[in-house]
Amino acid sequence: MPHRFTAEEQLTDLVEGADLRVGAVHGVRVFADLVPGVLVDTEPGALEALLKLEEAAAELPAFHSVATQLHVLGETRGADGA
């Protein structure tokens, strides 16, 4: 059964548990699953517009809760631990 993690809590804990820090969180498929495929396939420019919208929304935390997936970038900590 799929499990949905929350960026603010569970994913941050997993990344920090690996001795990394969260560098960035991106929402994936924020709108793509909501738009009918026939519209994207038949409407001129629809695919490009959808991709631009996805790109604009990917980094905005307000959209993370509706994204189908979250990509979390873990970064190594510097010598000072930050």
Uncertain segments: none
Strand order of the largest sheet: 1-2
| C-alpha end-to-end distance | 35 Å
Question: Strand percentage, roughly?
Answer: 15-25%
Tally of separate helices: 3
Mean pLDDT: 87
Rounded to an integer, what's the Rg over CA atoms?
16 Å
Number of strands: 2
Order of helices and strands: HEHHE
Shape: elongated
**Overall SS class:** alpha+beta
Main sheet?
Answer: 2 strands, antiparallel
Helix percent reads 25-40%
Concise overview:
The protein is built from 3 helices and 2 strands; from the N terminus they run αβααβ. It has 82 residues and is α+β, with helices and mostly antiparallel strands. It has a two-stranded antiparallel ribbon with strand order 1-2.
Descriptive key words:
two-stranded antiparallel sheet, elongated, alpha+beta
Tell me about this structure.
- The chain is an alpha+beta fold and 82 residues long.
- Helix content is 37%, strand content 21%.
- It is built from three helices and two strands.
- It has helices spanning 7-17, 37-42, 46-58; strands spanning 20-28, 69-76.
- The longest helix is centred in the middle third of the chain and has 13 residues, at 46-58.
- The model has no long low-confidence stretch (mean pLDDT 87).
